[in-house]
Amino acid sequence: GGGTFDVSVVDSRLGDYDVQATDGCILGGDNFDANLRRWVIKEANIKIHHFRPEDLTKLQWICSKAKIALQKSQAPVPIDCTGYEAGTVILTPEAYQSIMKTTFAPAIRKAKAVVADTIPAGEPYDLVLVGGSTRCPYLQTWVAEELKHPPIPMFYDPDCIVALGASVYAQMV
Question: Is pLDDT above 90 for 123?
Answer without folding.
Answer: no
